[in-house]
Amino acid sequence: MIKVTVWNEYRHEKQSEQVRAVYPEGIHGQLKSFLQEEFEVTTATLDEPEHGLTEEVLASTDVLVWWGHIAHGEVQDEIVNRVHQRVLEGMGLIVLHSGHMSKIFMKLMGTSCDLKWREADEVCRMWNVNPSHPITEGVGEFIYLEKEEMYGEHFDIPAPDELLFVNWYQGGEVFRGGCTFRRGNGKVFYFQPGHETYPSYYNEQVQRVIQNAVKWCRPTTNAYPKYGYHQPLEQISKGEA
Amino acid sequence: MIKVTVWNEYRHEKQSEQVRAVYPEGIHGQLKSFLQEEFEVTTATLDEPEHGLTEEVLASTDVLVWWGHIAHGEVQDEIVNRVHQRVLEGMGLIVLHSGHMSKIFMKLMGTSCDLKWREADEVCRMWNVNPSHPITEGVGEFIYLEKEEMYGEHFDIPAPDELLFVNWYQGGEVFRGGCTFRRGNGKVFYFQPGHETYPSYYNEQVQRVIQNAVKWCRPTTNAYPKYGYHQPLEQISKGEA
Amino acid sequence: MIKVTVWNEYRHEKQSEQVRAVYPEGIHGQLKSFLQEEFEVTTATLDEPEHGLTEEVLASTDVLVWWGHIAHGEVQDEIVNRVHQRVLEGMGLIVLHSGHMSKIFMKLMGTSCDLKWREADEVCRMWNVNPSHPITEGVGEFIYLEKEEMYGEHFDIPAPDELLFVNWYQGGEVFRGGCTFRRGNGKVFYFQPGHETYPSYYNEQVQRVIQNAVKWCRPTTNAYPKYGYHQPLEQISKGEA
Amino acid sequence: MIKVTVWNEYRHEKQSEQVRAVYPEGIHGQLKSFLQEEFEVTTATLDEPEHGLTEEVLASTDVLVWWGHIAHGEVQDEIVNRVHQRVLEGMGLIVLHSGHMSKIFMKLMGTSCDLKWREADEVCRMWNVNPSHPITEGVGEFIYLEKEEMYGEHFDIPAPDELLFVNWYQGGEVFRGGCTFRRGNGKVFYFQPGHETYPSYYNEQVQRVIQNAVKWCRPTTNAYPKYGYHQPLEQISKGEA
């Protein structure tokens, strides 16, 4: 059974009644609730020791789900490096919504990961541009969200390995809202929905995508490749043909 | 100087006063008018012998621009194969608007190239998602078209090598409206604007993109690679290291 | 259970004792033998009516495996178009070795699919350049084949969506020997090993890759997207913000 | 005229007579010698103040060429961040040979950038797998280097946006030896040749590729995109169609 760790900053929920009303168990609680149907799920949050991401926790995590927003700067560099190393070794990583500016996502992308944004209660329609991909399995032609925060292009990421969703917003913007990236032995999926004041993680299509993504992100059993000095496998002879 | 051949079906202009009012010299005439500032431009149309695309014409064409719509089926397979071979040898190809269902584009893509569409005088905003690409040079953050035909996802093309523009439409759809593809020794650019009843080819940003694309599409001087039986370049010895 | 149809030209085995000695049950027989451990497998061959690929057979096929070589030209265009349509609808396709010049692969790629080749009993080492991909699962750093036909660059395919293996040959050539492509709702995998006089399909790593590829290629349940005229999902109002 | 800054660590040349014999003017001197035919070229080295990469120098650099090896760790993080920011703003970056482990390349890639290596005076043949790309212009089917350091897969980089060269080595390895990446508004090219004891930068094909790459890497005039809060461009009405 795939082992999932859901990481949440868990600050908005403590500070805002409005957010708490939407996510009374925290965003991590809601994510856990629909992931635990299929996977072995634990949670971790910013204010735990080592942010809940000890060596032991990460060593037994197949896929890490990441939600953060107002406290990206408080995540310790040492822990970011630890997560980064685990991704390169093969751990899957699903970065949600405002996690686009988390230290771990920026470190993996190598770009600013910046974008345009607006909170205006507007419709978001996420078009499926890759219907053959296992992450879009069962989703159909688009995901409809009555209200979502606008995230608009230009989104400063490397060209994704695979583009799965393109978002439409009422205000006139578009956004690459579902993207895959491979880094080292690990797989990364970025998914746009999840503003803290909107109930996006109760949406069944959104849930389905995150469930699909966990399966897609799971590590292979391939060992981390060997690097450094390499003995020749063939005789290095000088004769030309 | 780059040699451009602008190919136009040239039927709408003859059949419809409305289209003729927009493009009195034909769509090819308008495309030629802004391309000839920088390039050596000739035109060819469906009803000419061999559709104006003789062996001689193609042999001296660096970049072919293609506009077609209601008469895709009338383009002879022999001419399609001839154009296809030239693309593989290195000739650039720019496919505009409804050319997405032309025989030559479908043959190069290997898919149905189908899409959703609607004519409803709606705003199209083409967001630049690749500002470092020479084809988007000088275009800025987006191209604004007051009226354009809606082309919507799913667009049944292979994942483009590079995605340059994503279109937003008032009716709620998005579209990958600027895409590059490499085929053989040749380069292909698909660009969405250009419904026959709208003045999109008078738009300076649209013109700039097509001009940029001609430069990007020009052939390299690399010879067509050699295929078939190949003598070993190194001695095939059996000794292991 | 995934339904696999293994298609084989089945001519070499009838014409050559040398090939028959390697594959007494035909290449399709050997492919079936290791695929049937996990999947529901049937076979089809060129000389059967409709090449064994009737509408009924294809309708119940999740993944089609294709081996052909000396009789590509005998495959009827009608059957090629039928297979092509099924791939666009979602059927997976695994193209092996000399299938690179089959009509179906060329039609899906849009290029000549040509390459350099040589039969010289030389070592082929297929390096895994994508260890996080499910198709390379369990394969390790490389696949070692004591003897395989040399296939060398330039390989005239579109840039693959994902590059999985790069082959090294004793004679001095390299080859992109494991490549994925998405076409329509379907997924395609090209894999180089399998010259008819060498026992490559008895190699456990090669078998593992083909088994992995069947799983990767299986269709999603997403319906084939709707194309054509599309009603607006949002009110098309003319008011600017 | 494109402004190029060639940056060299410039340590091997001072420490080793063998290297000095190959590059008496330093590696940067040799790179400058063939780039200044077409471009405005200056040089900068590690031991200059701010490594020669002041704000002023970078502000007037269109394309930065980077060679480093034994002193990656001595490059100050502040300068690395400055170069990184300039790449995101549009400056081109060409990373040569052992620069694969430079701080700036690792920061832009987000991976370990590690690989296999061996110094054994062996033949390197770099196959051109993208003959339509302007960086391979004029190079033909392959680049032949009588002696080059072996760099072997797995090379821990993100999947390149474009793969241009695949290297073959006598000892049995392959390597993705020419790769492009887009980061922010900037373009990055990695190119394998250039071990300090071999005369690779005197090879005319190698020189041609680096010259081509400078042109390909030059910035567009597109402004750095605007990020942050964004006013709606369209009226956000709630009416459904």
Automatic annotation (TrEMBL), chains A, B, C, D:
Which protein is depicted? Trehalose utilization protein ThuA
Which organism encodes this protein? Vagococcus zengguangii
**SUPFAM superfamilies on file:** Class I glutamine amidotransferase-like (SSF52317)
Gene3D superfamilies reported for this sequence: 3.40.50.880
Please name the taxonomic classification of the source: Bacteria, Bacillati, Bacillota, Bacilli, Lactobacillales
One Pfam family linked to the record: ThuA
Q: Which InterPro entries match?
A: Class_I_gatase-like (IPR029062), ThuA-like (IPR029010), Trehalose_catabolism_ThuA_prok (IPR009381)
